[in-house]
Amino acid sequence: MTSPSTLSTPGEPAPVGDRRRWFALAIVMTAAFMDLVDVTIVNIAIPSIQRDAGATFSQIQWITAGYTLAFAAGLITGGRLGDIHGRKRLFLIGITGFTVASALCGFAANPEMLVASRILQGAMAALMVPQVLSIVHATFPAHERGKVFGLFGMIVGLGAVSGPLLGALLTEWNIFGLEWRPIFLINLPVGIAGIILGRKFITESKAPKALKLDLVGVVLVTLGLLMMLYPLTRGRELGWPVWGYVMMAGALVVFGVLVAYEKRKAAKDGSPLVELSLFKVKSFAAGIAVQTVFGVAMGIFFLVWTLYMQVGLGWSALRAGLTGVPFSIAVSVAAGLSVQKFVPRFGRKVLQTGALTMAAGVLIYIWEADRYGTDITSWQMALPLTVMGIGMGLIVAPLTDAVLSNVPKEHAGSASGLINTVQQMGTALGLGLVSVVFFGVIDERVAPQRIPLEFVDGFQNALWWVTGVLAVIFLLMFALPPKPRQHVEAETAPTDELPSRETALTP
Are 323 and 385 in contact (CB under 8 A)? Predict the structure, then answer.
């Protein structure tokens, strides 16, 4: 969750004796928790949404990918808007819009409205989330920030673990016969409280020298991703028409135009959306590739995994949610150990071990899915999920620091924002690829009793893709610095030391 909005000094911290700063902290952390839960809570309810709303598989993909894409496209711009117009103001606008979008999701009359509402929700999160750590940085003096960031790390872990369980319980309870809708409606009282209390307790802050907006860059990034994702999600249902391939090829042209425009923008006013000079740093370029590809793997796995358990195996949402608990616990434990114990001693080897460990867990899962078929149990899944969780924990916690190791301090904020953005974009791309690696191998025309076996086959195929992606990640990690950088003192620490939102990528 490192914010691009922290490109400049956020202003003077609130006086140490001002108790209002702790109320402000509770408010912004609650908002961060709400966003983190919303990322993970939806997956577990997808089969219920499909049954109740009659959503197609491509619409299901867009319910998840739409949020991620909108969040990624607006993340850097949201941070800069906070620098220019005030973090408190943008936070309140974002949380208000997020709450309204949650209501629209909860009361969606059809799948199309739900997809549109999810895209709006992601866009509002892009305004709200970048302000959280900027507000913390502007509100607390340096000697208190270690304690605050520790609390923030706990919130990230709690959101990652509680999201699937909360989604499972709300779906299973079927409150007032609303099926899946309470997973969105639960945001309403939280959001309203955040709006009211935020107006009272959060102190306004702006950046002394904020960069200008790059709306053209945002449009080009969004257009390029849409041209890539739309044919991927719709192509299978439409028989892979020629225009889909033309559109995907056109996406590459758009990205080429983006690079040319960003070069000119940097030369003109020094405020491009993407600081292209960062890619001259070998470790950063490789790290961005790792972040993107890792996002692809996670986008594929979590959606396919949910469909495999609930649609293929016919499990309830609650059973599926509980099955993921070993994974979440393993991620949390391994993440803490990797940063505190392993990385200072072994450096890059810890991340590479994580990639290999995660791949080993995926291979165990493939073997078990093949051996036990539709008779597999939650207990049998515990082993591969725990191994995968350990591997993921060894990667996600230290990865941001490794990527930023050789980045000049003056570009730390821009680099941090770009890391989070490309990871979200990778996730959106992975969700789009589900049409190819999962639905592409499922024959929906078979007899109903064969459908579970088709889902088992599709799950195994998708996991082979994930294994291949993890192998690529392992190789890319050779370009990361062998040892971690030396951290500066808290008083002068750049904002790239802040916790990263990517650690919330647990199911």
Answer: yes
